[in-house]
Design goal:
The structure is a single chain. The chain is an all-alpha fold. Helices cover 64% and strands 1% of the residues. A three-stranded mixed beta sheet has the order 2-1-3. Strands 4-5 form a two-stranded antiparallel ribbon. Helix 23 runs parallel beside helix 24 and helix 31 packs antiparallel against helix 32. The two termini are 82 Å apart. The N terminus is likely disordered. GO terms for molecular function: RNA binding; sequence-specific DNA binding; transcription corepressor activity. InterPro entries: ARM-type_fold, DNA_pol_V/MYBBP1A. This is MYB binding protein 1a. Belongs to the MYBBP1A family. It holds the Pfam family DNA_pol_phi.
Length: 1298
C-alpha cells in the first residue's frame, strides 16, 4: 500500500482497504472510477452469453497486466475463487475458465497457493450441510481451472495435491456423480510417462475387481496399459480382460459408460480404448461377439444399442478388409437396420444421420483403398427389410468413392438388379411383419421386386452426386441400362450391345418396368441440367440425349438382338426417321441460327424419346413440330415489327404454341424447361392468335371451358412407389386406419346432411313403410290391426335395405363427383402455373413487343380472382407468381413498347377502363395493381410521343417570352390531357368524396411525381376539397396531397411565375379559411387560470411537473399574443442579508446537506414571497399584448441580472426539464457556487468575500432572450414553400417604399 501512496494517482484497490491505505482525497475519485470498471469485469464473467464472458475475461487480463504488483491481483484471485462456489450453477464454469486463463497468463502465481486458498475458502470439513453442494463443485472446478491452465502437469506437488483432492471428492456421488473420476482420467492422460509411473500406485489399486468396478477405473487401467505397460505389469501382473470371468463385468462397465453419456450422445472413451486393446492383442473377434453382440445387445437398452452403433462407426477405419464382414454381417448391423425402419415418428431419436457421418468420414479418409470402400458401401446396402434396403435411395456419401470403387459399386447394383442374390443380403422383418399371416408378404418375388425398384432409383440418384466431366462413362452406362430395360428386352446377345448379354434370374414385372421408365425420364432431367451447366464438356459436341437417341436407333435397327416392348407401327417408324433427319439438318444450320436450332433440336429429341412411352401422341406431335421447324428456319431471322403485328401470320407459330401447351400439360420438369427454351426463340414470331391461346388457359371464359382442359399426371408416381414401400408396415396401416376413420366420420356427417335436405329419399322411405304397414295409423285410421308377421317383417327389411343401399350409392357417387372436380381444379391450377412460364419468357425477352400490352388485363383478372379465392397453397402460388411477373417483369421493366402505331386511341380507352376498375374494387391491394397498370400505359404513351421526331426550334424563338413555358412542358409530356384529365379527375373526386374508396394517397402521389403536367390539371380539384362540405378525413387527405406535391421541382417547372403565385395565393386563402378559429373563449379560460397557478408557485408548492406546467401555460399564451410578465426588481438594501459561509473545495461526504440546503435558511422567505407577489399581480392586470415598461433597459442588462429576472423557479429554456435543472444546481454546489434563494431578488449582488477562492464559475445561468410580441401570422407557421412566398412579397414592398 505504500507503493500506492507514492504514486500521483492512486490505482484501484479492493473494497475495505481504502481506509487503511491512507490514500489522499485527491486520488479518491480516480480510484472509484477504476474500481467500478474493474468490478464490472466479474459481473460480465458470470453472464450466460459466451461472447460477453470471453470479452470480460480478456479485458480483466489486460487490466491486470498493466498492474501486476497492485492489490487488484489479490482481489481478482479472491473474487474468482469465491465465484467457484456461487449458487448459480451456470456461473461456476465461467469463473473456473477465467481463473484458468489468469493462471496461464501469470505463471509466477504458485498453483499450490491457489489450491490452498480454494480449500480454505470452501473447506469441506467445516462447511454446513446446506452449502455442501456448492463447496464440492467449488473444489472440483478449482482443480479443473488448475488443469486447464496447462501448468498442473508441470508442477508435481500441485499435481499430487489435486489428485488427492479429486479422490476425496469421488465418494460424493450424489452431487458430483462421475465428474471427479473423469477429471482424474483427463489429467492422467496429459501427464508424462515418468510422472505417471510415480503416481500410478497412488491412483490405481492393484485389484482387478476395483479396475472393473467403474468406467473411470477401467480407463485409467487402459491408459496405463498404453503408456506404462511395464509399470502396470509390476503392479498388477498379467491381466486378461477378455477372459470368460471378466467379460460379464466388461459388459456392465460399458453399459454404465453408455448411461453416463446418454445426454451427450457421444462414444465413451473407455469403449474406444477397449476396442483398440482388443485389436492390439488380436482378440477382436472375441470382443465383438461376446462383449458387443452377445453382451450389450442382449441388455435391451437403447443407450447400450447406441453405444454399439457408435462403436461400429468408429471401428470402420481400424478394421481390415478381412475383419469388415465380421461386424457388417452380424446381429449388430441387423439391429441397426431394424432401428432405421422403426424410428419413423418425429419425436424418436434417429441414429441414421450420425451413422452417415461415420461412413462419410471413413470413405473420405481411405480414398486410396477402393477395396475397403466398396466393401463398406456394399455391406450397408445389403441390410434389407424383406428385400428393401433400409438406406434411402439418395445417399450423399457416394460422392467420396474413388473412381474404381464407384465402378465396382455400379456393377454390383446392376448385378443385383438382373440376378438378385437374396442369400447375400442381411435381411430381417419387424415384429409386426412377423405377425402377419399373409404368405405373399414373405415370398421371394416380393423381395426381388422391392429390391429392383430401390436399385434403379439408387442408380439414378447417384448421377446427381457425380461430376459429369469425371465419371461420364459411368453416367452414360447408367442411362443406357435404364433405357434398355425400360423399353426393350434382349433376344440374342451380341458384343456390340452389352445390354443384350444380361439375363434375368427372375422375370421383370410390368410394374417394375414402369418404375424404370419413370426413373429414366428423371435421369434425362439431370443429364440435361448437367449439359447446360457445362456445355463445353459434352462428349463429341453432342448432348447426352442425342447419344441416347442414337443408342435407341441402333436397337431399333437390330431387331434380331433386341426387341421393343411396344413395337413401332409404320407411321411411327417414319416419324422417328424423319425426326433423325431433321436433327441432322439442324446440326448443319448456319451460325446465326445456332441457338434457335439447338432449342428445336432438343425439343425434337425429347419428343422422339417419348415415342417409346406414348407412341400415338408423340407421333402426331413430331409431325407438327417438324413442319413448324421447317417454316421457322425457312423465314428470315429478323422481321420488321409491322409484320409481327400482321394478322396474316403463318399458322406455324400457333401450331407450335399448341404443342408447347400440350407438353406443359405433362407433369415433367424436363418438358417444362424445354418448352421455356423453345418459346423464348419463337417470341419474335408470336401472333395475337397464338398469344390468345395462352391467355385462354389463364382466363377461361366459362367453367365448361375449364373442364375441357386435360392435364395428365402419373408418370412420376412410380418414382415414389419404392420410397413409399420402404416405410414400415405398421405405420402404413395406422395411417390407413386414420384415413378410414376420417372417411367414416365424413360419411356419417354427409348422410345426416343429406337426410335433412333429400326430400325424395324421405318420400320413398315413407312409401316403403306404408306398403309394409309399419307406420301404424295413417290419415286418421285406427291402429287396432294386428302386428306384422315374420314374412312381412322380412319383406320390409329387404325393401328398406335396398332403399338405403341405393341412397348410399347416390351419396358415394356425389362424393366421387366432388372429389373428381377437386382434383380437376388442382390439375388446372397446376397447369396455369406452368403456363405462366411462357408469359414470363415473353415479358422478359420481348418487352418491346406490342403484344405485351395485351397481357395487362388477363394478368389482372388472375390476380383479382386469386385474391378472392386464395385459400389453398396452390392458389397462393398462382397469385404470387402472377403478381411477381406483373410487378417486376412488366411494370418495372426498363424496356417497353416504343411503337404502338395505331393503338394509341385504344390505349387511352384502356387507361380509362383500368382507372375505372381501380375505383370500383373492394380491396385496396387489388386496386393498386389496376392503378399501376394504368401508369404503365401512360409510360408507354409518353415514351411513344417522345420518340417521335420533333422539329428543332430556332435560337431566336427560344429566346422569346416565357409565356409558352407551360405549352412546352405539356408538349414534353406527350400525353393528351383532354382525354386523361376527365379520367383522373373523376377518380380523384371519387377518392375525396366516397366513404370507402379503394384508392389511396400513395397512388396519386405516384401519378403526380411521374406526370407533373397531369398533376397541374388535377390541383384545382385537390384545392377545392381542402375546405367545403367534405369530410374531415377527406380534407386531411387533400392537404397531404398538396403538402407532398407542391414542393416538387417538376411541378414548379410546369407553371410560370404569375401562375405559380396565383396558385400559392389560392392555397393560402383556402388554408387560412380553414385555420380561422375564434380563440377569444380559449384566451379567457387561460387568463382565468393564471392567478391561481402563479400563486401556487410563489407560495413554494413544489408539485411534480408544476414548473413545466407553468412554462407550457405561457407558451400557449404567447401563441395567443400575450407576453409573459417579468417580476419587478427589489432594492438591494431591502433584501434580507444572508450570511453565507464559504464552501470548502474538498468533496463533501455522502449523506450531508450543504449549508444552503438547511431549513434555517427558509425562515426569512415569507416576506420576500409576499413582496414578489405584488409585481406579478400588477402584471396580471395589464391588457393582453402590452409590453412591459422596462423592456429597453432589460436589453442592456448583464447575463446574471437577466437570468435572475425570471419568475420563481422557472426553467432557463423550455427544453430543460426540472430534473436537468436540479442536476445543474448540484453541479454548481460541487464546484463551490452557492445557489440563490428562489425568492431572492434578481439583481442582488453577493459580497466578493463570500465567493470561493477556487472552483467557482463566474458565469450565471443562460439568460432568457426577450420575447417579441406574438403575432397570429399564418406565413410564419406555414411550410417553407409558403414562407418563401411571404418573404418575397415583403422584399417587394420594401423596394417599392424605398
Amino acid at each position: 500500500m505504500a507503493e500506492m501512496e507514492s504514486q500521483d494517482v492512486a490505482g484501484p484497490v479492493a473494497p475495505g482497504e481504502a481506509s487503511k491505505s491512507g490514500a489522499r482525497p485527491v486520488d479518491r475519485e480516480g480510484l472509484l472510477k477504476h474500481s467500478r470498471e474493474f468490478l464490472d469485469f466479474f459481473w460480465d464473467i458470470a453472464k450466460p452469453q459466451q461472447e460477453t464472458r470471453l470479452e470480460a475475461t480478456e479485458k480483466l487480463l489486460e487490466y491486470l497486466r498493466a498492474r501486476p504488483e497492485g492489490s487488484e491481483m489479490k482481489y481478482a484471485l479472491k473474487r474468482l475463487i469465491t465465484g467457484l462456489g456461487v449458487g448459480r450453477e451456470t456461473a461456476r464454469p465461467c469463473y473456473s475458465l477465467a481463473l484458468a486463463q489468469l493462471l496461464q497468463s501469470f505463471e509466477d502465481i504458485p498453483l499450490c497457493g491457489i489450491l490452498q486458498q480454494i480449500q480454505e475458502k470452501h473447506d469441506l470439513q467445516t462447511v454446513k450441510k446446506a452449502t455442501m453442494r456448492p463447496a464440492l463443485f467449488a473444489n472440483l472446478f478449482g482443480v479443473l481451472a488448475l488443469f486447464q491452465s496447462g501448468r498442473l502437469v508441470k508442477d508435481p506437488e500441485a499435481l499430487m495435491k489435486s489428485l488427492r483432492l479429486l479422490q476425496t471428492l469421488a465418494p460424493h456421488h450424489n452431487h458430483l456423480q462421475e465428474q471427479p473420476q473423469k477429471a482424474l482420467v483427463d489429467i492422467l492422460s496429459e501427464v508424462p510417462k515418468a510422472v505417471l509411473q510415480e503416481i500410478l500406485p497412488k491412483v490405481l489399486r492393484a485389484d482387478l475387481s476395483s479396475v472393473l468396478g467403474s468406467p473411470e477405473h477401467l480407463q485409467i487401467f487402459l491408459l496405463a496399459q498404453q503408456k506404462v505397460p511395464r509399470k502396470l505389469e509390476e503392479l498388477m501382473g498379467q491381466v486378461n480382460l477378455f477372459s470368460d470371468e471378466n467379460i460379464p463385468r466388461l459388459v456392465n462397465v460399458l453399459k454404465a459408460a453408455a448411461a453416463s453419456v446418454k445426454k451427450e450422445r457421444k462414444l465413451p472413451a473407455v469403449a474406444l480404448d477397449l476396442l483398440r486393446l482388443a485389436l492390439q492383442e488380436g482378440k477382436f473377434p472375441r470382443f465383438w461377439k461376446d462383449v458387443v453382440e452377445q453382451g450389450l445387445l442382449k441388455k435391451q437398452s437403447w443407450p447400450a444399442s447406441y453405444l454399439c452403433f457408435r462403436l461400429l462407426g468408429a471401428a470402420l477405419p481400424l478394421l481390415s478388409t478381412e475383419q469388415l464382414p465380421l461386424v457388417m454381417r452380424g446381429d449388430l448391423i441387423r439391429h441397426f437396420g431394424e432401428h432405421v425402419v422403426t424410428a419413423k415418428l418425429p419425436n424418436q431419436f434417429k441414429f441414421a444421420p450420425e451413422m452417415n457421418e461415420y461412413v462419410g468420414a471413413f470413405l473420405e479418409g481411405c480414398r486410396d483403398d477402393p477395396e475397403r470402400q466398396l466393401a463398406v458401401v456394399v455391406a450397408f446396402t445389403s441390410v434389407t427389410n424383406q428385400g428393401l434396403p433400409v438406406l434411402p435411395t439418395f445417399w450423399r456419401v457416394v460422392k467420396f468413392l474413388s473412381p474404381s470403387a464407384l465402378k465396382g459399386y455400379v456393377a454390383w447394383l446392376r448385378a443385383m438388379f438382373l440376378q438378385p442374390d437374396l442369400d447375400s443380403l442381411v435381411d430381417f422383418s419387424t415384429s409386426n411383419q412377423k405377425k402377419a399371416q399373409d404368405a405373399s408378404l414373405h415370398g421371394p418375388e416380393r423381395a426381388v421386386s422391392r429390391l429392383r425398384k430401390w436399385v434403379i432409383l439408387r442408380l439414378v440418384s447417384m448421377v446427381d452426386a457425380l461430376h459429369a466431366e469425371k465419371e461420364e462413362d459411368v453416367i452414360e452406362e447408367v442411362a443406357r441400362f435404364c433405357f434398355f430395360h425400360a423399353f426393350f428386352e434382349a433376344k440374342k446377345s451380341t458384343s456390340q450391345i452389352p445390354e443384350t448379354e444380361q439375363h434375368f434370374s427372375f422375370p421383370l414385372e410390368s410394374r417394375t418396368r414402369e418404375v424404370v421408365s419413370g426413373a429414366f425420364f428423371s435421369l434425362l432431367q439431370t443429364l440435361s441440367s448437367q449439359c447446360r451447366q457445362a456445355p463445353e464438356q459434352v462428349q463429341d459436341g453432342q448432348p447426352c440425349i442425342h447419344r441416347l437417341v442414337q443408342f435407341a436407333d441402333s436397337l431399333l435397327n437390330r431387331s434380331r438382338n433386341a426387341a421393343a416392348l411396344t413395337p413401332f407401327t409404320a407411321p411411327q417408324r417414319q416419324a422417328w426417321d424423319r425426326m433423325l433427319q431433321t436433327v441432322q439438318e439442324l446440326e448443319a444450320s448456319s451460325s446465326g441460327t445456332k441457338a434457335k436450332a439447338a432449342a428445336f433440336q432438343h425439343l425434337l429429341l425429347l419428343v422422339g424419346i417419348h415415342l417409346f412411352k406414348s407412341p400415338t401422341e408423340s407421333c402426331d406431335l413430331l409431325g407438327d413440330i417438324q413442319t413448324c421447324v421447317k417454316k421457322s428456319l425457312g423465314e428470315k431471322t429478323r422481321r420488321t415489327r409491322s409484320k409481327a403485328t400482321n394478322p396474316q401470320e403463318p399458322p406455324w407459330v400457333e401450331v407450335l404454341v399448341e404443342i408447347l401447351l400440350a407438353l406443359l400439360a405433362q407433369p415433367s420438369h424436363l418438358m417444362r424447361q424445354v418448352a421455356r427454351s423453345v418459346f423464348g426463340h419463337i417470341c419474335p414470331h408470336l401472333t395475337p392468335r397464338a398469344l390468345q391461346l395462352i391467355l385462354d388457359v389463364l382466363n377461361p371464359k366459362e367453367d365448361a371451358d375449364e373442364d375441357s382442359v386435360v392435364v395428365t399426371d402419373g408418370p412420376e408416381e412410380p418414382l415414389e412407389s419404392a420410397e413409399d414401400e420402404s416405410s414400415d408396415g405398421e405405420n402404413g396401416r395406422a395411417s390407413a386406419g386414420e384415413e378410414d376413420s376420417d372417411e367414416d366420420s365424413g360419411d356419417s356427417e354427409e348422410e345426416d346432411r343429406d337426410a335433412d335436405v333429400d326430400q325424395g329419399f324421405r318420400e320413398q322411405l315413407m312409401a316403403v313403410l306404408r306398403a309394409g304397414k309399419a307406420l301404424g295409423a295413417v290419415d286418421g285410421e285406427d291402429d287396432d290391426g294386428d302386428e306384422l308377421g315374420d314374412e312381412a317383417m322380412m319383406a320390409l327389411d329387404q325393401s328398406l335395405a335396398s332403399l338405403f343401399a341405393e341412397q348410399k350409392l347416390r351419396i358415394q357417387a356425389r362424393r366421387d363427383e366432388k372429389d373428381k372436380l377437386r382434383k380437376e381444379k388442382v390439375l388446372r391450377r397446376d397447369f396455369q402455373i406452368r403456363v405462366l412460364d411462357l408469359i414470363e419468357v415473353l415479358v422478359t425477352k420481348q418487352p418491346e413487343n406490342p403484344l405485351v400490352l395485351e397481357l395487362l388485363e388477363p394478368l389482372l383478372d388472375v390476380i383479382r380472382r386469386s385474391m378472392r379465392t386464395s385459400s389453398t397453397k396452390q392458389e397462393q402460388d398462382l397469385l404470387h407468381k402472377t403478381a411477381r411477373i406483373f410487378t417486376h417483369h412488366l411494370c418495372r421493366s426498363r424496356h417497353y413498347c416504343h411503337d404502338v402505331g395505331r393503338l394509341v386511341g385504344t390505349l387511352y380507352v384502356q387507361v380509362e377502363r383500368l382507372v375505372g376498375q381501380a375505383s370500383r374494387q373492394a380491396d385496396a391491394s387489388v386496386s393498386l395493381y389496376y392503378f399501376n397498370a394504368a401508369l404503365y400505359l401512360l409510360r408507354v404513351l409518353k415514351g411513344n410521343a417522345a420518340s417521335k421526331p420533333i422539329s428543332k426550334t430556332p435560337k431566336k424563338e427560344k429566346a422569346g417570352s416565357k409565356a409558352k413555358g407551360s405549352e412546352v412542358a405539356q408538349a414534353a409530356g406527350g400525353l393528351d390531357l383532354s382525354l386523361l384529365t376527365p379520367v383522373y379527375s373523376s377518380a380523384l373526386t371519387s377518392f375525396l368524396t366516397k366513404r370507402n374508396s379503394p384508392l389511396t394517397v400513395p397512388m396519386f402521389l405516384s401519378l403526380f411525381s411521374r406526370h407533373p403536367v397531369l398533376c397541374k390539371s388535377l390541383l384545382p380539384i385537390v384545392i377545392q376539397h381542402v375546405t367545403g362540405p367534405a369530410r374531415p378525413r377527406h380534407q386531411a387527405q387533400a392537404c397531404v396531397l398538396l403538402q407532398k406535391a407542391l414542393p416538387t421541382r417538376e411541378l414548379r417547372a410546369c407553371f410560370e411565375d404569375p401562375e405559380w403565385e396565383q396558385l400559392v395565393s389560392q392555397v393560402l386563402a383556402k388554408v387560412t379559411e380553414k385555420l380561422t378559429v375564434d380563440l377569444t373563449t380559449v384566451l379567457g379560460v387561460l387568463q382565468s387560470k393564471q392567478p391561481n397557478l402563479q400563486q401556487r408557485l410563489q407560495q413554494g408548492e413544489r408539485m411534480a411537473g408544476s414548473s413545466r406546467l407553468y412554462d407550457l401555460y405561457w407558451q400557449a399564451m404567447k401563441a395567443l399574443g400575450v407576453q409573459r410578465p417579468k417580476s419587478e426588481k427589489k432594492d438591494i438594501k431591502e433584501a434580507p442579508s444572508v450570511t453565507q459561509n464559504p464552501i470548502s473545495t474538498k468533496r463533501k461526504k455522502k449523506g450531508f446537506l450543504p449549508e444552503t440546503k438547511k431549513r434555517k435558511k427558509r425562515k426569512s422567505e415569507g416576506p420576500a414571497q409576499e413582496e414578489d407577489a405584488k409585481p406579478a399581480a400588477t402584471g396580471e392586470q395589464q391588457p393582453p399584448g402590452t409590453p412591459s415598461p422596462g423592456k429597453r433597459r432589460r436589453h442592456k442588462r448583464k447575463a446574471p441580472a437577466a437570468a435572475a429576472a425570471a419568475p420563481p423557479d422557472p426553467a432557463p429554456a423550455p427544453t430543460q426539464t426540472p430534473k436537468l435543472r436540479k442536476k445543474k444546481r448540484k453541479l454548481s454546489q460541487v464546484n463551490g457556487a452557492t445557489p440563490a434563494s428562489p425568492v431572492e431578488p434578481a439583481d442582488t449582488k453577493q459580497p466578493q468575500k463570500d465567493l470561493p477562492a477556487k472552483g467557482v464559475s463566474g458565469k450565471s445561468p443562460k439568460s432568457v432572450l426577450p420575447r417579441k410580441k406574438a403575432r397570429l401570422s399564418l406565413a410564419s407557421r406555414s411550410p417553407s414553400l409558403l414562407q418563401s412566398v411571404a418573404k418575397r412579397k415583403k422584399v417587394q414592398l420594401r423596394k417599392r417604399k424605398a
